[in-house]
Amino acid sequence: MTESPTIPASFDAAADLEQITEATAHLLTTVAELTDEELRQPSLCDGWTRGHVLTHIARNADGLSNLLNSAATGEVTPMYESNDKRNADIEAGASRPAAEHLADLRESAGRFAEAFAGAQAAGHWDTLVYRTVGAEPIQAYEVPAKRLGELLIHHVDLDADFTPAHWSDSFTDDWFANALERFSGREDFPPLRLDVEEEDTVYGVKAVSEDKAVVVVRGPKRALLGWLLGRASGDGLVAVIPAGGRGPLPKLPSWG
User: Fold this and answer.
1) H or E stretch covering 225
2) How many domains is the chain partitioned into structurally?
3) Matching Gene3D superfamilies, A to Z (predicted)?
4) d(Cα 125, Cα 145) in Å, to the nearest integer?
């Protein structure tokens, strides 16, 4: 079967699954070392404990499995019944013991892997799938990247010695480009230039890269991405103001 031209040539389901499997294994190793008390402590997600984060990761696996099953079977099943149900499920599972969280993560990851295999066998990665009934659809090929992002970004949110420094080059490159595109369309994001040290390249967000009237923030790409996503304080970054010299890092809106 010929792939739809709407699927990027760079899409590689097998490679995506390999990254997801590795990220899942790393997360499970971290969670296995957390105690019941530690899971009740705050995460880096405002208003959420570590238990909230872990429940979200597990329910996200099940929700994305629904989308993969839609692609495999043609039967439309939204990711979540509703946003209210999604939030209620996270709240209900947040205070469970560590052993139950770990088992839930393993089992939901297994269901995701099974659904992924079904979607890969069907090959219908151009299928439109839905987060909730009536929501704007995405194509099924976007699901693996979303799952990888949930695993790696929320692993950082556990505040348990996993940081943006652990993100791979490929993940950092993909999500950096995604962040630039996403923030370029948001009215609440300030015009900004980002100087990636290791690339010797300046990227403009709501500004051209040569615009000397716009603040430039310089630093390693992972540190810049962590800051853009609200997962890092900005340590290691330098802001240069148009008048010359260093200034405070611009205040950014939530990744949302």
Assistant:
1) helix 221-228
2) 2
3) 3.30.1050.20, dinb family like domain (1.20.120.450)
4) 13
